[in-house]
Amino acid sequence: MKQEMSSVDIKYIVEELKTLEGARVDKIYQDRDQVRIKLHVTGEGRKDLIIEVGKRIHLTTYIKEAPQHPSSFTMLLRKYLSGSRVEKIEQHDFDRIVKLKIGNYTLIAELFRKGNIILVDENNMIISAMRYEEFKDRAIKPKHVYMLPPARENPVDISWESFRELISSQDVEIVRALARKLNMGGLYAEEILLRAGIEKTKRANTLDEDELKVIFEKIKEVFNAPKKANIIYENDTPVDVLPIELKWYESYKKKFFTTFSEALDEYFGKILLESAKIERTKKLQNKKGQLEATLRKQEEMINGFKRQIQENQEIGDLIYANFTFIENLLKELSKAVEKLGWKEFKERLENGKKSGNKIAQMIKNIDAKEKAVTIELDGKKVKLYLNKSVGENAEIYYEKAKKAKHKLEGAQKAHEETLRKIEEIEKLIEEEEKKELSVRKIRKRKKKWFEKFRWFLSSEGFLIIAGKDATTNEIVVKKYMSENDLYCHADIYGAPHVVIKDGKKAGEKSLFEACQFAVSMSRAWKEGLYSGDAYWTEPNQVTKKAPSGEYLGKGAFMVYGKRNWMHGLPVKLAVGIVQYEEEKLPMCGPVEAVKAHTDKYIIIRPGRMKKSEFAKRLAKILERWGYKVDLDELMQILPPGNGEIVEVIE
Predict the structure, then answer these.
(1) Pick from 162, 145, 119, 127: nearest CA to 28
(2) Tens of pLDDT along 447-496?
């Protein structure tokens, strides 16, 4: 089963990840060897990039619960990278190294061997790393220049001449020569030779030029193959994940994906989920294992005590069943020992056995120290003490049976207690398994076209959209404002452009709500203002044409002609779940607008609560009402800045 990405995988994934160039770093999380970078992509929203050192890098929807206390490395990465833009993502040569240029810094993900993540400045000086290490030819330590590992040949760019010279000089199997010298790994070496029709065990230096040419052509064919991401299954178990379709896996079951990131996420995400399932009950399972081992020992002891009770009881009964015989035997043996002594008695006994004396043959052992003999009676070995009566000898065995019975009772009680503890542990395991996993999969619904902007439905049912930043402000006006709409803007620098779709049919209520929305979604909220002014105009009054000698940047427009002003608009909004085209959507808009579309809503205003905490508080209320809203989705619809809850209407 595949555990890490190959150089080929990284080539294809980096091509995909280039779509993240321009994304803003929102927050960074670390859990052991995994670093997750939460990004915001304009027009698309949240994207999560996972880097697991020594293993993988791709976009993910499997989100692991962040540790309560971020590591010092996490805090350092947040300090240097949060808020910056991803400027460039590239693979170093054909190695398992990915460089992410973020602002003035570069984050280097080493995905070979144990792996590492290193942060360097614009002079390639190491600021920090997940792990500090020292090698023969380089050191991963602060204030050291970051040195790349020794480079190897790149099969994508290698020329025919270099390839021929390199492979012809290798006195090893051709499959090994390709895998090692061209840094492609065993699977792709096998695939190339399979396509070339050349036996993989042939020595590389014995291949003729025609054979080398076929191999060279197949290398170019494989590494320029169109992307066709797929997961390979064997008996319904995923065993590999690939960016292209391979002949090697021709007979295997496959599942295809639109992007390689989706395939990698599905493959490694399932591994992460299984790991999380094991992890959450690991301590309890270990405890259960210890108790089960104790239980097995106790069961062995119980069976042993039962055998002792039965054996000793049977021997005691056997002695009484042969009372007369044993009584006479004890008398005769006692007389013999008294007359001869133990030494001569033993000698006489051995002679008797040789001569076939039946009584002598019954005696299996003599213990002079304890003045006892062991005889075999009805297939059982019975130890008899010559200085004790028949009843006393039988009582010895009955006493042993009694002691074993007492021990059995204690062992059975301990066994019951262990069973009770195992049942308790199993209940705890069952409870833990019912709890939400520390890893959750973000299931993103397909969003409406207007959800990439700020938006709400007016109390009269008109759709009103607004920009979130310079880019979306530009789009709202240029692409989505038509002649039947109306335009609104707040009298404050940097306020969003607001468009009332089909606004020329809108009434006073919708105009008021749109202007209030323009004020509330502006810096007025962040600055804690309680009211502001805004106006509305016709679309043809809004233009990109700047006054002579001036320049309008991205997201900036000029408004000419009459402005219809509204003054003292309250900086106050509401959050609720509204029905739109048979789908329930979280909406943030003026109180009257939200109230018109739902019975339950939360009235909010500028406050001191940090936006992230504020969003969590709102999410809990919505969840209480039966609506599970993604926290990031909620953050996107809220106004820019901290806030507080004024009232919850239920």
Answers:
(1) 119
(2) 888 998 999 999 999 999 999 988 899 999 999 999 999 999 999 988 99
Rounded to the nearest 5°, which phi and psi values hold at 584?
A: -95, 125
Contact criterion met (CB below 8 Å) for 430 and 441: no
Predicted pLDDT of residue 450: 93
- How far apart CA 232 and CA 56 sit, in angstroms, is 17
Q: Answer yes or no: are the C-beta atoms of 475 and 311 closer than 8 Å.
A: no
In this structure, what token pair is assigned to residue 315? Answer: 């021997």
3-state secondary structure of 577: strand
The H or E element containing residue 360 is helix 358-362
Cα separation, 18 vs 105, in Å, equals 17
Two tokens at 192?
Answer: 């190339």
DSSP-assigned letter for residue 197: T
Name 245's bridge partners: none
In angstroms, what CA-CA distances link 259 with 56, 59, 228?
15, 10, 8
Alpha-carbon span 16 to 3, nearest angstrom: 21
| 3-class DSSP string for 216-227 | HHHHHHHHCCCC
DSSP 451: G
Place of tokens 């990039």: 49
Averaged pLDDT in 10-residue chunks for the chain of 650 residues: 88 94 93 91 85 93 80 94 94 92 95 93 94 87 89 84 91 91 89 93 92 93 90 91 93 94 89 66 84 93 94 94 92 90 89 87 90 91 92 94 94 93 86 61 74 94 94 92 95 93 95 96 93 95 83 85 95 94 91 95 94 92 89 89 93
The CA-to-CA distance between both ends of the chain, in Å, stands at 52
Instruction: Indicate the helix (H) or strand (E) that contains 238.
Output: strand 237-242
> How high is the pLDDT of residue 539?
95
Token reading at 343? 């030494």
Task: Give the pairing type, strands 45-52 and 34-41.
Answer: antiparallel
Q: Which two tokens stand for residue 63?
A: 């989100």
Q: Which of 396, 415, 556, 584 is nearest to 474 (CA)?
A: 556
R_g of the chain computed on alpha carbons: 41
Tell me how many degrees the CA angle 510-508-451 measures, rounded to the nearest 5.
10
**What is the rounded average pLDDT for all residues in the chain?**
90
Cα–Cα–Cα angle for 210, 213, 217, nearest 5°? Answer: 145
CA 283 – CA 86 distance, rounded (Å): 40
Q: How far is CA 222 from CA 160, 162, 188, 466, in A?
A: 16, 18, 8, 47
Q: Which residue has the tokens 């239980």?
A: 295
Structure tokens at 517: 């929305």
Q: What percent of the chain has pLDDT over 70?
A: 97
User: What backbone phi and psi angles, to 5 degrees, belong to 363?
Assistant: -80, 120
Nearest to 489 by CA among 502, 479, 480, 500: 500
Rounded CA separation 527/454 (Å)? 19
